[in-house]
Structures are given as structure tokens and as C-alpha cells.
Amino acid sequence: MKTLVMANQKGGVGKTATVFGLATDFRARGLRVVVIDVDTQGNVSFTFDANKSGILASSLFASTEQTFELTDDFTLIEADEALTDLNKISIEEAYRAFSASIRRIEEMGYDVCLIDTAPSLGVGLISVLLSADYVISPIELEVYSIKGIEKMLTIITHIREANSKLKFLGMLPNKVDHRNPRHERHYEELKKAYPDLLIPCCIGLRSSVSEALASGVPVWDNPKTSARVAAKEFRDLADYVYQKMELAA
Ligand SMILES: Nc1ncnc2c1ncn2[C@@H]1O[C@H](COP(=O)(O)OP(=O)(O)OP(=O)(O)O)[C@@H](O)[C@H]1O
Ligand SMILES: [Mg+2]
Asked: What digits encode the pLDDT tens for the residues 142-166?
């Protein structure tokens, strides 16, 4: 099993949208998928409400002796209020328990585990990154988002000193408006500043993405033209990530 985390301490950049897009695509490819929501906002838990496993995300950080069972081929470990208490325990303790939980999920024969995280640099995000195989940082092509990404990249570099298996798949430009010259300029600047750290895919600013998150229905099941374009963008992203993570059904 491979684990992929969506991480950016900046809010609203598309972490949850990316988890949703990849999870629905990987499910359609026949992969056995677990989604873990480590964000008390519970956004991905809302979107995948129908797929709740009954296991609460905070329990994954509570003990190294995990005995929970997951059975569905596509399942959600939902966010719960107790995640707010994670900052009361040490990173070491949280990391040990979470890693044990990931091993438990792997034993149950899942192919991929997608983890949505909160826009804050707490024990939750750090311990998840310490346990994971891959990380993507969605970003917006706006100044605050670009300024904030440097901090995230530094954190990922530090984490990789402790977790050498962690691979940064790159920054994913999201909510891109190709008619907006500012976005085009920022994209070119980012490409120049971080030539190896940009995923060669973009997700456009499209209302069909918000509609998909609100309804839980994948973009490709929405007949609108804008949804067809969004579906193609997410498919291209999923192809890229599938290949980079060496996934196979
Ligand atoms: N490509 C897009 N086009 C249009 N709207 C989008 C797109 N991606 C995300 N959104 C919308 O922008 C908002 C923020 O997106 P999302 O929730 O995925 O960000 P996030 O990084 O998970 O935020 P948070 O840090 O609060 O968890 C949501 O309302 C979502 O529907
Ligand atoms: Mg989110």
C-alpha cells in the first residue's frame, strides 16, 4: 500500500478537492482505497459521508496496538472532534501510533491511502508526513499562496531528514484561470523558481469542482461542459500520480 498526503498550511488551496478527485479516480480504476480525514473541519468526511467506515481518525493516533477492521473496497476514516486534542500529545507518540495504524490498514489489502490534512502545522500534519510515502502541495497562483509555499517546502525538507521514504510529488496549481494574466505570470515565476517542484498538471477554476465536493458526485458524472474539462484535468493528474506512485490494481 502507498500513502499520499495532501499538505499545505495555507487554507482553501484545494487539498480536499485533490483528495476527492484522486480518490474517485483511483476507485474507478479498481484500486482498493482508504481516505483518512485528519482535519476537524471534516470536509472530505462530508463529501464521502456515504462511505464512512465507523472508524474515527483520532483513534489512529491513540495507540500502537490497533485492531480495527475495514472491509469496503472504498472507505473513509472520518474526522472527529478529538483530533483537536492531538496537539496535547507528543509528535513521537502520535507518529508511532499513526504508523502502526497505517501498517494495520496495509494488512487489510488496500492499495492506496489518501490523507487530507488541516491548514495548520500541528502534531497531526507532522506525524502524518513522518509516516507517509508521498506528498502533494496544492497551491493557488496568488501571492499569499506562493509566499506560503516556501514554509511548506522547508517543512517537507526537514521531514525528509527523518522519513527518507517520503517523496515530494510537487506543487499542484489549482483554481487556475488561464485568462488571468496574473495567474499566467505567477505560473511562469513558479516554474522558474522551482523547475523540479511543479507537477506538470493544473486544475482550472471551475464551479463543477465545488459542485462535485458538495454532492460527492465525481466531476465526470456531471454533464456540463465545464465539468468535462475539469474531468480531463483530474484524469491527467490521476494518470501522473498513479504512474509516479507506481500504483497497480
Ligand atoms: N479547481 C477549483 N475550482 C473552483 N473551486 C474550487 C476548486 N478547487 C477547490 N475549490 C473550492 O474552493 C474551496 C477550497 O477548496 P478545498 O476545500 O479543496 O481547499 P482546502 O485546501 O482543502 O481548504 P482547507 O485548508 O480549508 O481544508 C472549496 O469551496 C472548493 O469547493
Ligand atoms: Mg480541506
From this structure: 988 888 899 999 999 999 999 999 9
Q: What is the CA radius of gyration of the chain?
A: 17
Domain 2-244 fold:
Rossmann fold (3.40.50)
Distance 140 CA to ligand 1 centre (A): 10
Q: What is the pLDDT of residues 116-138, one digit of tens each?
A: 999 999 999 999 999 999 999 99
Nearest CA to ligand 1 atom 13: 12
Compute the distance between CA of residue 83 and CA of residue 125 in angstroms, rounded to an integer: 11
Greatest extent of the chain over all pairs of C-alpha atoms, in Å? 53
pTM above 0.70, yes or no: yes
Q: How far is the CA of 200 from the centre of ligand 2 (A)?
A: 22
- Does the C-beta of 17 come closer than 6 Å to ligand 1? yes
* 12 in contact with ligand 1, CB cutoff 6 A: yes
Domain positions in the chain: 2-244
